[in-house]
């Protein structure tokens, strides 16, 4: 009786083994003719027998299922994820067994997958489909974990997509692996144009130098992304309504590098978003001590001072920004607006005057002051319009100023410019 039972079990196992091989062979044959739907049908039948598969058949199962669902890159996002999961299981299975039959074949497929994911991520980004873009950048990283920049891209785009929990998980992973974003960049000067150009690799740069199309090779370190990451994490917490965690994230980063310029700027942006204006000004002022020629910081302090009606302080910072870069359109525009903002005080005083001789005299003085404001603002607005010929705000303001000054010729010229800009000419 016992011998009969053993024989029955042996026959059952043999039947299972035969069925497994049949289904796997069917999937394999379907894949050779790129019949992915049929391959998936065979795989689903084999899945029911997965628990009884030996290591060799199990590895083959994962391999074939991965190929069937990836479908040479035509699978849906969901199917591609299934393929990735199965290739991962394959490698884990063969690593445990010590026999890597399919792992090397998967490597070739994964190389094609990486190129496909990068292409999809870039196309999705161009179409502003941030979810698809971050998903594909993450997949690149999962297949090539040394390319940490792809995980950073995924984190930034997940933030852009407002997938905050996903973004936080990416940023935390980046922090755990010590990601800074600092990379070596390769430059050389183009001999024909005398312009400094960047190269994607040292190999290509050095080859150009050897062929004498370029000279003066220089290696430079890229800017650290630690500050940007801290800012993004803090902004995510703010969006989630967790302001204390936002500040905590910044403070943790600062504890490691308190004089990091990017962190100071990151915290200042967070403080501004939270309405901590005095703290914002303090941080930006400290950042300016580290980089006194930072145009954007001077401009930002100018904006803050202007909003607080601190005219002289705003003027000082706008002038600093313009001195550092005369082509800074926003600084030119804001300087003109700051000057014109003083007009309201003059108008208010005019409206309060009576009809006495003293009031009439004061009224005439105020008219002169008002005219001078217009004359002082004109150069900044004209410069802004010269730098940006489509600047409708500058053109309209100048048109109104020339009208107030009874400058008919300039009024007509500016009116024509306004109409041209409005008509897209």
Description:
The chain has 425 residues and is mainly alpha-helical. Among the domains are: 16-148, no CATH class; 184-221. The chain has helices at 2-32, 36-47, 55-70, 77-97, 103-126, 130-143, 148-160, 164-176, 202-210, 226-239, 243-256, 261-273, 277-290, 295-307, 311-324, 329-341, 343-352, 357-387, 392-404, 408-422, and strands spanning 184-190, 196-199, 214-221. Strands 2-1-3 form a 3-stranded antiparallel β-sheet, with helices on one face. The model is unreliable at 1-16 (pLDDT under 50).
| Count of individual helical segments | 20
**Structural class by sheet pairing and helices:** mainly alpha
Percentage of residues in helical conformation:
over 70%
Query: What's the average pLDDT?
Result: 88
The CA-CA distance between the termini, in Å, is 99 Å
> Rounded to an integer, what's the Rg over CA atoms?
33 Å
- The parts where pLDDT drops under 50 for at least 5 residues are 1-16
Task: Give a count of the beta strands, DSSP E runs of length 2 or more.
Answer: 3
List SSEs in N-to-C order: HHHHHHHHEEHEHHHHHHHHHHH
Largest sheet: 3 strands, antiparallel
Beta-sheet strand percentage?
under 5%
Query: Tell me, what's the shape?
Result: elongated
**Major sheet: order of its strands?**
2-1-3
């Amino acid at each position: 009786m016992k011998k009969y039972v053993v024989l029955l079990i042996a026959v059952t196992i043999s039947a299972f083994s035969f069925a497994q091989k049949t289904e796997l062979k069917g999937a394999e044959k379907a894949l050779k003719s790129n019949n992915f739907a049929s391959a998936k049908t065979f795989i689903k039948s084999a899945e029911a027998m997965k628990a009884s598969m030996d290591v060799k058949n199990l590895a083959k199962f994962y391999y074939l299922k991965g190929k069937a669902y990836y479908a040479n890159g035509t699978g849906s996002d969901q199917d591609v994820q299934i393929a990735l999961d199965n290739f991962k299981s394959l490698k884990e299975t063969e690593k445990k067994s010590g026999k890597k039959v399919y792992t090397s074949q998967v490597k070739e497929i994964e190389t094609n997958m990486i190129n496909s994911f990068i292409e999809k991520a870039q196309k999705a980004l161009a179409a502003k489909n941030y979810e698809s873009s971050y998903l594909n950048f993450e997949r690149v990283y999962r297949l090539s974990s040394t390319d940490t920049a792809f995980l950073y891209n995924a984190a930034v785009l997940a933030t852009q997509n407002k997938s905050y929990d996903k973004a936080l998980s990416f940023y935390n992973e980046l922090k755990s692996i010590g990601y800074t974003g600092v990379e070596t960049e390769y430059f050389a000067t183009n001999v024909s144009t005398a312009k400094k150009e960047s190269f994607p690799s040292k190999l290509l740069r050095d080859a150009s130098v050897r062929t004498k199309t370029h000279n003066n090779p220089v290696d430079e370190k890229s800017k650290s992304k630690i500050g940007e990451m801290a800012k993004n994490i803090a902004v995510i917490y703010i969006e989630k309504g967790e302001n204390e965690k936002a500040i905590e994230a910044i403070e943790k980063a600062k504890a490691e590098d308190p004089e990091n310029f990017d962190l100071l700027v990151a915290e200042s942006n967070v403080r501004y978003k939270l309405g901590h204006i005095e703290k914002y000004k303090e941080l930006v002022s400290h950042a300016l001590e580290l980089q006194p020629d930072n145009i954007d910081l001077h401009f930002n302090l100018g904006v803050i001072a202007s909003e607080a009606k601190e005219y002289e302080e705003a003027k000082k910072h706008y002038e600093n920004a313009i001195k550092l870069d005369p082509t800074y359109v926003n600084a030119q525009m804001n300087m003109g607006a700051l000057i014109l903002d003083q007009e309201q005080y003059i108008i208010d005083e005019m409206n309060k005057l009576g009809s006495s001789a003293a009031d009439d005299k004061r009224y005439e003085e105020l008219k002169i002051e008002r005219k001078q404001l217009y004359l002082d603002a004109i150069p900044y607005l004209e410069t802004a319009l010269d730098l940006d010929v489509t600047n409708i705000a500058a053109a309209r303001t100048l048109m109104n100023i020339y009208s107030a000054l009874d400058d008919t010729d300039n009024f007509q010229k500016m009116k024509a410019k306004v109409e041209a800009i409005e008509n897209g000419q």
